[in-house]
Every structure is written in structure tokens, then in C-alpha cells.
Amino acid sequence: METAGYTTLSRQTGLMRELQVIANNIANANTSGFRQEGVIFSEYVTEGDGVSGVAMAAARVRNTSYVQGTLEQTGGTFDMAIEGDGFFLIQAPEGQRLTRAGAFSPSAEGTLVTSDGYPVLDAGGTPVFVPPQSDDLAIGRDGTLSSDGRAIGQIGVVRPLDEKQMVREGGVLFRADGGFEPLEDPRVVQGFVEASNVDPILQVARMVEVQRAYELGQSFMEREDERVRSALKAFIK
């Protein structure tokens, strides 16, 4: 394959990856706590003598938007949302993880868990326990849980030390490879969940744009293939 073919193929591969990311964004437009992703294109340049060097596109980096989504009122006693910065601290099977999805509920054992059954932790990394029949449960702005006027625990709200080192695991969970620390002034809202920050209209518009770019690249590769075939036939004759 000639240089033009390699260059176009690298571009097509990147566009295909972006289409997959966009499709995933659209599919999760109604997923509480979901964070929209994008693809960052970079240029790969081979060393050359100034004439024979090759530059190709690479789309290996995914960029996550941490812009807050709309807070939707549910009225659920155990539903929570965070205004501003911060993440809920969760105990996943692989370790402690961060999330903005606050649709929680008490388990049969009384532990507060996510929709996937993962325990919700306090700032110290201990599962939050909710006493049975806590119908009057109140959650303060700082995440403190109280029942009958007595504090019974506090939701762990943390912030990553470096958002660039956040790694998505699944739909709404993140691994903070750079570490995290308790948020000094969290703002937790009871009876609300945070909607996805995906803008479906913009995502569909971007999908159309990427599809057209992909079709243009496909057309170029077909014409390039015809040119090479014609050149080979002429050479053989």
C-alpha cells in the first residue's frame, strides 16, 4: 500500500473510532451521571529527509467532559445529586471508584448501594449504613445523613487530584489513577439525580459530519485503488 493509502486508512480508522464514541454518547443520553466523551486527533510524523517523511492522523485519546448535567427532581429519599465539583465514592469489585450517578437505595443488610449493588462509602472508605425503617432520613448539604434528628453517617464526596488521569470504567464509574481527596465544601441535594451531560442534538449533528468525512475518505481510497490498478495494467502492457 502506498503512502496515500496508509494516510487515508489511518484517518478512516480515527473517524470510525469517533463514530463509536458518538454512538455511545447518544445511547447514554438518558443515563444518570453519564459523562460525554470526545476523540482527540493527533498527528503522527515519521522521520524523513524532508521529502520522504510521512504524516498520519491518530485518534487514540478520548476526552471526557465533566460539565455538570441538569439536576432532575425525583423525590426519592435516597436519590442524591452533587451541585458543582465532586464525585460520590463507591466500592466496586476492582476497588474504590468515583461516580456522579446518585440513584442509591438501601440493601437488605442496610448498606447504601448503587443501582449495580456497589456500596456507597463515606470519606474514610467505610460503607454507609442506613438503619431500617428510616422513613424520616434527611441528607444535609455536606452529605450528612440524619434520622430522628441524629447524625448516622456522611456520604463521601471527593475530588480527583488530576482529572486528566481519570479512567472511565463502564458507563458512569471512573478510576482516579492520580488519587483523590475529600471535597472541603460539598453540595449534596437530596431527592434529585444528575442527568447525563450529553447534548443529543449536537451529537447527532456531529455524527452526520463524521459520516460525511468517512464517506469522502472511502471515495478517495476507491479512486486511488483504480489509479493504481490502471497504472499496473499500463506497466504490464
Task: Write a short abstract of this structure.
By secondary structure, this protein is of the alpha+beta class. The protein has helices spanning 3-27, 200-236; strands at 37-45, 55-64, 71-73, 80-82, 87-92, 95-99, 105-106, 112-113, 138-139, 144-147, 150-154, 157-160, 166-169, 173-176, 180-182, 188-190, 192-194. It has two domains: 3-66 and 198-236; 71-194, no CATH class.
Distance between the termini: 22 Å
Number of helices, where a helix is a run of at least 4 consecutive DSSP H or I residues: 2
Report Rg: 25 Å
β-sheet strand percentage: 25-35%
Approximate shape:
elongated
Indicate the structural class: alpha+beta
Helix content: 25-40%
Taking all residues together, what is the mean pLDDT? 86
- Residue ranges: pLDDT <50 for 5 or more in a row? none
Could you give the count of β-strands? 17
Order of strands side by side in the largest beta sheet? 13-14-6-5-12-15
Descriptive notes:
The protein has 237 residues and is an alpha+beta fold. 26% of the residues lie in helices and 30% in strands. A six-stranded antiparallel sheet has the order 13-14-6-5-12-15, with no helix packed on it. It has a three-stranded antiparallel sheet with strand order 9-10-11, with no helix packed on it. Strands 1-2 form a two-stranded antiparallel sheet. The longest helix has 37 residues. It is elongated. It starts with a helix and ends with a helix.
